[in-house]
Structures are given as structure tokens and as C-alpha cells.
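Practice problem: predict the structure.
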Amino acid sequence: MHIVTVDGGKTKTVCAILDAEGNVLSYATGRAIGSSLLDQQTIEFNLRTVVFDALTRSGLSVEDIGVASFSVCDIDTKELMSNMEGIILKLGFKGKVLLEPDFVAAYYVATHGKPGVGVIAGTGSMAYGENGSGGKARAGGWGWLINDEGGGFWIGARALNAVARAYDGMNKETALSKTICKELNLNDCLDLMNLACKEGSAGPLLASRIAPLVDLAAQEGDSQAIRILEQAAHELSFMALTVSRKLELAKKRHIVGCVGSVFKSNIVLENFKEIMEREDEGVEIRGPYIDYAPLMGPAIVAFKELRTESSEMLFETINRNLEKIS
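Answer:
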């Protein structure tokens, strides 16, 4: 029995091939498939490329796969879910095909199905949880135009705003100006206008590229960068607490997992932990889960489909093997 696991995000897609014992046989990284900015042809091409790259590296074909488990962002509505299902079916898998939104997979990454909340902070942001009694709840994840507070786009957009305000003399100077212009090869901050216009509908992805630079500036002591990251932690913790309260988990023993690249920032992570532990006495913080770790979500979904009883030892094996390729 062999398993394909795929985590499709707004900026990249990762795929790993596992055997029945949770060993990683191969993996591959490719372009985004989980973005409302992409057309279906692009999504299909990007998905096919990364899946067949991983299959080729493993020496397997679609006929050898017993379960293919996919976790994809931006498939919250019935229409978007149906569209993605159609794209996946074109890959030709003969075995069982499973598809979950990324927020469900994030919950499984951290909790392995126990009561708790998974908080995603990648390009976008969202919190989702289950209470073990059938209750499910979510907060955030409406997309960059509506919210996604605390995600990479949100952080980058606020950094770009800080640079523009400093340039105009409406705010004090910030190290973000020099850092961002250097990264984007700009001689003048005003040239950000040209870049933003040229990027067009890909503007959210441009902003998300800026998020790691905010952490660099914060590490150098820039007060505006620090404030942006502290605000991100506040927003992410507010999402998590909202879900916990909806599920009546607050003050009870439960897990909250940090999933996504934004949690690479110690400022975000430590402020998030401080707020959660202060506001919710029953919480156990896990993570951060980054790089290939989100593949744990679709992997757990796949093994739960295959086995009547979940094995924590198996999940630990999968997690340990994924850490080796991160």
C-alpha cells in the first residue's frame, strides 16, 4: 500500500509518497495550486507536475497508489471544492481519493484528531477546531480582500504601507524601507508603485514575499516591524480563542497548533503563546509546523481512512520522517 499526500498552498505545493509504515519514499515541491488568483488550467498543470515528479522519484505510478490525500487552501465553498475534485480526478488515481480544505488538515497536524484548534498562518490565515463530540468551528480564512489577519499577505501589506507613509513623511522612518527596496531591487521606494501595478492581480503574492523581511527588520530593532508582528500574533490568537469558545473548549484541556511560515517569526510565536496561555488556562501549544510538516495533515486523514484505530506511534513516525526532509 502506497499513499500520496499533497499540501497545496497559495505560494507553493508539496507532495510526498509514503508507504504503509509511514516512511517517506519521495517528495517534491512545486508551484501553488490553492489560490483563487489562478485559472483551472494553471492549477491542473501545477498539481500534475508536482505529483508526477514525486511519483517518478519513487519509481511508482498512479496505479500503485492505494490512497491519494489532498489538503488545499481556497476550497471553502461547495463550488470551489467541486472544481478541485474535478482537477484531481484527471490525475487518474485508481485508489481512494480524499480532499480536505487546508484548515481541516492543519487541525489534524497538531491534534491528530483530539479536541483542539489548528491555526494556519501562511500567505493567508485561519483557525479551525473540533471538540471531539461532533462540534466543529472556524474563524477567518475569508481571503486577502476581506480578512486573513495575521497571515503573510496581511503582514506584508502593512509593511508596504509603513514604507509609503515614511516616504511621504506621514510616519517616522523605518528600516523596512531599505530592507524591502534591497530585496526587490528598487532604487527608490516610490518605485513600489510601478511594481504593484505590474504585479496586478498577483499583488497579494507580492505582499506575502515581504513578510519574512518584516521579521528581519524586527530582529534589528525596528519598532514598526515589531509592532506589525505583535499585531499579527494578537489577530491569530483572537481567531484561536474565538474557535475555542465556540466549541466550549476554553479552560478545558485542549491542543492549539501553530501551522505555517508566519510562525517562523519568534516574535509572532512567543507573543501568540503568551496571549493564549494567559487567556486560556487549558491550552497546550504545539508547533510550529512549517515547511513539509503540513503534509502530516493529509497523511493522517489518509491513515484514518485506512485503519479503524489511529496509531500515535504511526503519526510520530510520519512526523519524524517529514522533519528529515524539511
